[in-house]
């Protein structure tokens, strides 16, 4: 992406590349990246300003052109496409356009859930997000920017939004991007579950199609296409693995306050308790950790969940402040 930014500022991008760059510049990472480049090229910018005494006039002319275009054109076209059509031929104008994007903050709305709480969020584009407990979702509210930043877990049902209001092909649909620390999930109309807990990132696709872009936040590179019924997880080495499952709905059963277990160990259930209710766990010994269960457990109240575990696994669970102590029943 760094090379592509430099290429863009030198007026060497084609339309598709310009779209990619300007979409990137609308993200916090893209803005910071551009700031670094501009700082490094400060002396060159001064020289450009010296050679072009009407620099501010150029900016005003671009801004007016965009306003005129948006006022007279009935088609709803993302701002980055209009910028490209106005500024594709003049490198100085492209540079001003980049600065304009840098100084247009992405407006967003923040949603947060407490331990034991879930929230259903209706987005302005018709999409629905169910946010799991102890999670944070930031959603861009700027026109034609469909992006969200997730920490925790959420289930997304993304509506198809057409660029011109009447699109029928994927390349005419506005993409929706879900950002995590290591993976971006890119969709157009899809339902999927994203888990972004600590160092674990998991994406489960229920319907539609998505692709994952991985790498550093400033340079997403590799892509992995997912089909319905597939689960993708990020390994500790930074690689993404993909497997198929018979019932992807199992992974998002938390929306219905259920924990579906398929030979799930008590240690794995304890991790769910930590993220859902905020309780850490202690085990009397390793053998208790490896106890497993198959079935459906209640998630809407911690007391009901621990009661079900005690009856199913013949163990005792004691609360010590914010810690649950798991012991073998005598």
Helix and strand run: HHHHHHHEEEEEEEEEEEEEEHEHEHEE
Second-tier CATH architecture of the largest domain: Sandwich
Kindly state the number of beta strands. 18
Largest sheet: 13 strands, mixed
- CATH uppermost class of the largest domain: Mainly Beta
Report the total helices: 10
Give the number of domains. Answer: 3
- CATH topology (fold) name of the largest domain: Jelly Rolls
* Poorly predicted runs of 5 or more residues: 45-93, 166-171
What does this molecule look like?
By secondary structure, the protein is α+β, with helices and mostly antiparallel strands. It has ten helices and 18 strands. It has helices at residues 2-9, 15-25, 28-40, 42-51, 55-72, 79-87, 91-102, 266-277, 286-289, 302-313; strands at residues 108-112, 119-122, 128-131, 136-140, 147-157, 176-179, 183-187, 191-197, 200-207, 210-216, 219-226, 230-234, 240-244, 258-265, 280-283, 292-298, 315-320, 323-328. Strands 1, 2, 3, 4, 5, 6, 7, 8, 9, 10, 11, 12 and 13 form a 13-stranded mixed β-sheet that branches. It has a three-stranded mixed β-sheet with strand order 15-18-17. Helix 5 (55-72) packs across helix 7.
